[in-house]
Design the sequence.
């Protein structure tokens, strides 16, 4: 059976503001020294098991040109441009409906566009196992990440008995507090929920029909119009009418036959500025420094320079990001609060800075 | 007897880098919300006791135009342009020699150009007392500042018996360590050395001749050429030949008849970025914020914005200064280390940033 991939690239990457902007969010930026953008890496690492013509990128209409510019060789019709953001369930329903016009059935990998993978061979090997499990029956497979510490910022997957290469999923749980997270790790029965899914199009469509019949109906209409002159109108009409829903809540927490495969391939969701020092090399004082920077007596500091000189003196545990129109100076304890600044800017009508 | 003033404005203000630059040092900047520059304030507060035509500003030749632009009404010939920096002794000898061509004798106030005075009436009253003391005999008067805490960054004046409005100076001492500074305060016999002096031209010239005959000789030649076509050549030849010497070491630590008058007029030498929160109003979280700034959960932080947005999140006790070509992020404990960055820039041949 054919393997296709759906890469979800509609996010705004707000936690990487001010480098990530509405006009060019995180997935279209390079956050590593090799200069490749996150989405370029995501596509490249898939090519051993998915043909370029079977890779679909779902993104906001505003980013279609960015995708075309960055992913050379991707057929333009494989860019599925959402007219608005409606979370992952409508996104996946849209892609499934379109791809099912091309193939009677196929395996579909659903993948975020802005995560990093350290060990690509292990990643591919894990996906191959997931594909095998997904090809059987109506199985829905989620890739779990074996936790390395008690993270409170991720959802967890509670798994049960082993079935071949996979484990049966008992339940999905929301972001826990620290104590609960520690309990999860100690139990040896919980994985991080990475947001990567593997299933057949027929399996996911059946579940969408069962649990979200409204979204199913709209998606089918969009799929039927794909390639016809009515497509744009249908897409805008049906997609904007969708409610916002995550695939986790919409299907995964309700469906039967959910399996997880534990992955240990150096996954990093690059979820905040703190990730920069994890995914790049740091100096002896544990600073990550990029650009025109003079650092004196500074430790554990991340500095992403822009066009001007950044001078850091005697600072510790902070993040400094310089861009043409904004400079961010943020304590490492507060990287999640970047969103508060974005909110203030929007309230002040200064969307050009967000 | 006429009262004249010599304002020393040749400093580079390096401790206020990157706002203070070689091309426009601290004395030509406004560091307060009223928009007046330091040197403008210095001149303005003197006008109740010194006529504008009797105010002389000694500065580097490169800053002559800045002085002309900022001090309206100052006769151009009252700007004494040093061809190079030689510390305060040659500066004062130069000014004394020039002014002594205009007046047979006169009282001379010698004042830094980059300090702030909170209580100008008390300041004027103190200077008036100093003038009276200086008019008598060959007295040399230094204005001492009554210490408010055990500062280790200033020199101190050890004073003895009271003579009218002044106290006899026993000795000048260099910057002490913390313990010594505390001892000075406890003794009640030490004042901060503010670098403000009052004397007759005849008194200071006689002391220069006695203790620095080489500088005296050169200064007299410069004075004699003042107003003639030879002036520029003489100035460059004689001034560049001077050794670097402070007036404190060159005269004050050696001469007889040294007096001090304690001043309590809200003096601030504005000696580092730490001064900004002292001399300006701060918010409830003790932040000083100027310019286009969004601060979230930040405390005791000084932010001087430039043309771009500065976003500060969760930071404490730091100084952020944004300029067109440099952004500084400096721990409050390290404001003196700004000079280290300047040194690195000079070594790298990047003088345009200093």
Sequence:
């Amino acid at each position: 059976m054919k393997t296709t991939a759906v890469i979800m690239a509609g996010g705004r990457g707000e936690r990487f503001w001010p480098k990530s902007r509405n006009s060019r969010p995180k997935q279209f930026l390079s956050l590593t020294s090799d200069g490749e953008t996150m989405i370029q890496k995501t596509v490249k690492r898939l090519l051993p098991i998915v043909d370029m013509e079977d890779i679909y990128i779902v993104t906001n209409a505003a980013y279609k040109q960015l995708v075309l510019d960055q992913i050379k060789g991707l057929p333009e019709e494989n860019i599925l441009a959402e007219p608005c953001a409606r979370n992952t369930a409508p996104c996946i329903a849209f892609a499934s409906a379109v791809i099912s016009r091309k193939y009677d059935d196929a395996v579909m990998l659903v993948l975020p566009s802005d995560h990093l993978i350290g060990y690509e061979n292990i990643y591919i090997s894990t996906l191959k196992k997931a594909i095998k499990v997904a090809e059987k029956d109506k199985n829905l497979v989620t890739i779990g990440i074996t936790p390395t510490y008690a993270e409170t910022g991720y959802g967890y997957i509670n798994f049960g008995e082993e079935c071949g290469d996979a484990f049966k999923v008992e339940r999905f749980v929301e972001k826990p507090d620290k104590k609960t997270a520690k309990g999860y790790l100690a139990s040896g029965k919980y994985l991080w929920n990475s947001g990567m899914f593997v299933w057949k199009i027929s399996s996911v469509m059946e579940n969408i029909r069962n649990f979200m019949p409204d979204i199913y109906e709209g998606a089918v209409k969009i799929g039927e119009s794909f390639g016809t002159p009515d497509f744009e109108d249908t897409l805008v009409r049906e997609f904007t009418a969708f409610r916002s829903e995550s695939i986790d809540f919409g299907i995964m927490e309700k469906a039967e036959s959910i399996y997880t495969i534990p992955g240990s391939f150096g996954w990093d969701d690059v979820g905040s500025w703190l990730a920069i020092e994890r995914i790049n090399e740091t100096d002896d004082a544990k600073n990550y420094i990029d650009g025109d920077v003079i650092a004196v007596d500074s430790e554990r500091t991340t500095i992403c320079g822009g066009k001007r000189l950044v001078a850091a003196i005697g600072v510790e545990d902070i993040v400094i990001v310089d861009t043409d129109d904004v400079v961010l100076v943020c304590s490492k304890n507060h990287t999640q609060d970047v969103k508060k600044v974005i909110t203030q800017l929007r309230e002040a009508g200064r969307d050009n800075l967000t």
In short: The first helix of chain A runs from residue 38 to 46. Chain A has a mean pLDDT of 97. Chain A is about 30% helix and 25% strand.
